[in-house]
Amino acid sequence: MAVVHERTLSVWENKIKPKVQVAGSGPPVVFLHGAYGLTWDPFLDELAKSFTVYAPEHPGTTWGDPDGIKPLDNLWDLVLYYDEIFDQLGLHNPAVVGHSFGGMVAAEIAASYPQRVSKLVLLCPIGLWRDDTPVKNWMVLPMDEVVKAAFHDPNGPLAQQMLTLPEEETAQHDMQIRLTWALACTGKFIWPIPDKGLKKRIHRIQSPTLLVWGKSDKLVPPVYAQEFANRIAGARIAMIDHAAHVPQLEQLGQVAPLVRDFLAS
Fold first, then answer.
1. How far apart are CA 170 and CA 121, in angstroms?
2. Contact yes or no for 174/167 (Cβ under 8 A)
3. For the chain, domain boundaries
4. What pLDDT, on the 0 to 100 scale, is given for residue 165?
5. How far apart are CA 103 and CA 93, in angstroms?
6. Sign, Cα dihedral of 146, 150, 152, 154
7. At what angle do helices 101-112 and 75-89 cross, to 10 degrees?
8. DSSP state at residue 166
9. 28 by DSSP, 3-state: which?
10. Does 195 have pLDDT greater than 70?
């Protein structure tokens, strides 16, 4: 397992103090996590074998700075906020990997600042909308329904881990509060989910782009892979068998080398 160091930054006129987890060595890669908060996982461990991985927590989702969400009003503020994060970290044009909500944010950064992102990997991103195949609103779904939609095998150990609460009652309450707050903080930038205008800007992305999608994804159906690819020049698609909304964990042995090779090429 990689040795992970935590840095605390001060951005947005010192009003927000996000935490960034850093590990590995080599070219920089920024990882933007999904709506349920940041967890350093085996996928990031694999990336850290070849790259210096920077994993910032989305504003407000940091347990030590819950008010960090307040100074940012909208999605454009969030994009500018990440521009400041990159500057603080001394990253001029890193590769960016984004999952789900983090994938949408990564795409928005690459569209707003085309020279800011050297390569782009989007893991089941949200951000586009089809009336005939809607994205599920995970913010209002019971957790067991989220698990059924997000995992190829909802009875497998990875899925069940998401449903498992700590034994100690106080720890249970803390976990539930943190999860609810993370969803509220990320939800601020996407509610209502359908369309925040990415389709108008996504053509501006110039970074070589890899789209990775689980074929069993029921949260953001696989048809969206082609929707993204149609709008990003030269984008590649990798459809992953026996995986749903978290292909980088369900099929780690396939996805990690795929992403690593793409970033290194």
1. 38
2. no
3. 5-264
4. 62
5. 17
6. negative
7. 80
8. P
9. strand
10. yes
DSSP β-ladder status, 5-8 and 28-32: unpaired
Residue whose entry in the numeric block shows the structure tokens 């993370």: 182
119 in Cβ contact with 47 (< 8 Å):
no
- Give the C-alpha separation, 185 to 67, whole Å: 10
What does the DSSP 8-state code read for residue 150?
Answer: H
Strand order in the sheet with 209-214: 5-8, 19-23, 52-56, 28-32, 95-99, 120-123, 209-214, 236-240
Lowest mean pLDDT among 39-43, 49-53, 180-184: 180-184
Place of tokens 């990159």: 86
Half-sphere exposure of 242 (CA within 13 A, CB side): 9
The rounded distance, in Å, linking the Cα atoms of 196 and 77 is: 13
* Helical residues (DSSP H) of the chain, grouped into ranges: 42-48, 75-89, 101-112, 143-150, 157-163, 169-187, 198-201, 223-231, 247-250, 252-264
Least confident of 89-98, 108-117, 162-171, 232-241: 162-171
**For residue 229, what pLDDT is reported?**
98
- Indicate the average pLDDT of the chain: 94
Residue matched to tokens 């707003």: 112
pLDDT in tens, 108-129: 999 999 999 999 999 999 999 9
Cβ–Cβ under 8 Å, residues 169 and 177: no
CATH placement of domain 5-264: 3.40.50.1820
pLDDT of the residue at 26: 97
pLDDT at 52 over 80: yes
Task: Give the pLDDT of residue 174.
Answer: 78
193 contacts 135 by C-beta, under 8 angstroms: yes
How far, in whole angstroms, is CA 5 from its chain's centroid?
20
Max alpha carbon distance in the chain (Å)? 51
